[in-house]
Amino acid sequence: MSGRYRHLLFFYIILQPLIDLSASLSERFGIQWLSFGSGLRLFFLLFGGIIVFFKLLKDGNRSLFIVFVLPFIAVCLMLAVNLVQKHPFYFADELQFAAKSVYYVVCLFVFHFFLDTKRAVKPVTVAALIYGLSFIMAIATHTGFPSYNFNGKGTTGWFYAANEIGATLAFLLSFSLLYAQKREWAWAAVLSVLMAMYVIGTKTAFLSALFLLVLATGYLWFKKVKRKWGILFLTILFIGTAPFSPFIQNLRHPAYIPPLEPEPQTAPSTEVSEKAPHYLEENPILRRIFSSRTYYFEKKLADYHDVSPLRKWFGMGYAGDYKDHQPKLVEMDVIDLWIGYGWIGVIFMLCPLAVWLIGVIRGYRRWKKLGFYRWMLTVTVLLGLGISVISGHVLFAPAVSFFFSLALHGVKASLPNVEDGNVASK
Length: 426
Description:
Elements: H1 2-29, H2 36-59, H3 62-85, H4 91-114, H5 117-140, H6 162-180, H7 186-200, H8 203-222, H9 229-240, H10 246-252, H11 271-281, H12 284-290, H13 293-306, H14 309-314, H15 333-366, H16 372-390, H17 398-413
């Protein structure tokens, strides 16, 4: 049975670019039948969650069972509190936010029980090639979508959100570089993904590509691995052409500092929201790093101070409080989870991530040897955590959290077992 699930997971991995394309085109053009991608992800969430739930019950692993159910308890508490106290309350939006929040949890547990990550490197590389080729086709046909709504340069190909596809490609690049050390055809995936990250024009995509290339090259040269010239050439080429990239052009252009959304003509309710625009106008460096996210954070923080204790403990729901059905996330994962699920809820929601990370740390304490596979996945996980903090779109963007969970599981599974009640690799 596990073998059957493993092959289904391989197939689901290869389907990821098609799922993202369908979701993007459905969102942009309102074509309902193209939304099958979201349906597939929902099916994976429900089916995978049910299988994991009953497997944990059958195995009798209480500690792991608690870790699995805590995020779902946080969701139930958030929905119950906001159903009564949040006005307006849009149940469909809140439920979608909840589903995205727990998606990474189901991914971690499904991979833990049913997937050998080393064998998954090949289907991930195939998926990376499809992502990259779709970018090439979009560019060649001049049908790609712009990365920015203002005057910034860059294209997302046929995908929807620039930061989300940039983060996704970062994980795919890491897996592709791994497989390129075994199979020559994988370099096509590496090249196409690099080109896609180059043309997106965001700091997430460009700096992630540079980060992974430099660290991969450094490792291969330090270890004196034979197959190192290809990646050295790509690193030099990427750095050499950087001045012509959309990202560098955006840095030179004042439009790259995203304009703040105009405030409604009403008096601000708190001192924090009153000072937020002025504070950011005096800090252009913060505006470049966080793209105005601190502005929205201060607004949400002001709203947070005014809500009831129950909503502070269990969350304000999707995007906190908003009017006219215009929700706005901060787009910093931990902050959005904290606003959405409160002090108690965010602890429940991040518990699986904490357990896996603790397992990785303990594994490294017992095993000092660092191969290229473990090195690349480790730096990719660290990169993913950094993206999550600065630009979001990792922990509860299903397209990204799927590959983030895969990389995190890969690191954990490559280290010695930790048989102490925490997550143990098979």
